[in-house]
Amino acid sequence: MRIGNLEGRAVLIADGSALDVAHASSGAFGPSSRAVFERWDEFREWAQAQDPAQGEPFTPEQLGAPVPHPPQVFGIGLNYRDHAVEGGLALPEEPMVFTKFPSSITGPHAQVRLPSDRVDYEVELVVVIGKGGFGIAAENAWDHVAGLTIGQDLSDRAVQFRDQPPQFSLGKSLPGFAPIGPVMVTPDEFKDPNRLTIACRSGDATLQDGTTADMVFPVAELIARLSAVVTLLPGDLIFTGTPAGVGAVQDPPRYICPGEVITSSIEGIGQMRTTFILGE
Asked: Residue ranges of the Fumarylacetoacetase-like C-terminal domain (predicted)?
């Protein structure tokens, strides 16, 4: 099941068609995605009986963030082995957690302003929580996942590292610094949701190319460890970390330029394109 946000309304997507959730359910669900997540188990049962191909045609550019107003947004640092190696850092023994403030969320075809000449790209698998909870066991964690989507954990390194200690949350939460999309895909759609190819490109140049199997803390363990401290809520997002290839560790560093278009892709989900323009 593929769930999207078409011009502010929750839709089911298949074969280039979008079925409006509120209309198809006679108002039982939707029209916002928040209403869907608040009754996730009921919605999932209803949605599985629908045929999204009976919906209306749409263009990818019409899609917004599949979860436009998440209650909480968690980020995980150094969660890929190859990323830790490229930075010369030891693998963490506990997840390195920060937040991206929800106001940074934008959609899969966004224009993002560059506030400095040190903005970095980080393609990430993003987990969407369907059923919240506290103290979720790792063996039950996937039961709490509504779906998976693509994210960019954009980072203004000028803000992030302008003083000590670093300001991870602020440097990663400027307007538009959390593009997600193009859709949210439920876990049952994947042969193995723990092993997905993930990539980031600029034009013909490959910037990042990895697999989510390289995570230090896989999805289920992240959910267990986060929920041991924080109550997870329906619609929460977890940015699960990025593979090797980020710009800040290149020699010389490779940051995003005005006019650049970054394409982010994950197997089984699709791709999103983010265009960068000069800030004001």
From this structure: 73-276
CB 144 within 8 A of CB 186: no
Nearest-angstrom CA–CA distance, 262 and 152? 10
Domains and CATH numbers, the chain: 2-62 (no CATH), 73-278 (3.90.850.10)
Q: What is the pTM of this model?
A: 0.97
Residues of the chain scoring pLDDT < 50: none
Nearest CA-CA partner of 118 in 89, 161, 66? 161
Residue 41, amino acid: D
